[in-house]
Amino acid sequence: MVRIALAVSAAVAANAANAADRGADGNFDRRTSAHFVLYQDVDIDATGGFRGSRRFEQGVLEVLEDAYEFLDRILGFRPKRKIEVIVYDPDIFDREFSRRFRFAAAGFYARVIRVRGDTQIHTGLVRVLNHELVHAALDAAAPSLIFPAWLNEGLAEWFEARMVGKRHLSIHELRLLERARENGRLVSLATLSTPSFGHLGPDAARLAYLQSYGMVEFLARRHGDRKLREFCHDLIRSRNLGRSLSRVYRSDLSSLETRFLEELGPRD
Length: 268
Ligand SMILES: [Zn+2]
Description:
Blueprint: E1 4-7, H1 10-22, E2 29-32, E3 36-40, H2 53-75, E4 83-88, H3 90-97, E5 105-110, E6 112-116, H4 123-141, H5 149-163, H6 171-182, H7 202-223, H8 225-238, H9 241-249, H10 253-263
Parallel strand pairs: 1-5, 3-4, 4-6
Antiparallel strand pairs: 2-3, 5-6
Helix pairs in contact: 2-4, 4-5, 5-7, 6-7, 7-8, 8-9
């Protein structure tokens, strides 16, 4: 099952906060690093040793600190306040949060990063942590600005891919988008400009995430990382998507979207 990471609304945040207050077994381990406070409640048998909770927690914080530095380098975001991260036992996460989304969530950000944990650090967990950091950083930079979901999720998907060395859409992802376009299943970015994708069903959510990632990857590939960074910061200043697109890309959303869609197609 593909799990999706996302940012959610304040209402979900409030409910999530209540759930966290109750705790899983009421026994969250707390550990801090330079930029993060980690609460960890995965049911790990031992404290020390190779498979112990201490090593797991240190590993999670290392992943987050690496992502923090890369995010600063690539997009110029460096949240000043420590970011809270809660790693839940997978069963507890599912019990507490699965009803909040229509698709299987791997983690979400709502003032705090909440992640469906595991007993070991693997690529999936790393990607979710990297993904959620982008939501946390955008929120820290502009707490009252509601980013269109295609941009918020697109940046998070793009960044988590870049963190693991993936710069572009895979052939498989390109084919999925092409097929969706041919079948008329792609929706406009204007439609994907809701505050989150939390309301979408599993198939629609998967496609919405991919389309958003594709759009941000298009911007980075065609215009460079520096412009993408400039655009993000300009948007935070202007709080006006159209104005920032025009200033940085000399274009508007629908023209950029048309160019992105035109580029989908066989690439040999
Ligand atoms: Zn997300």
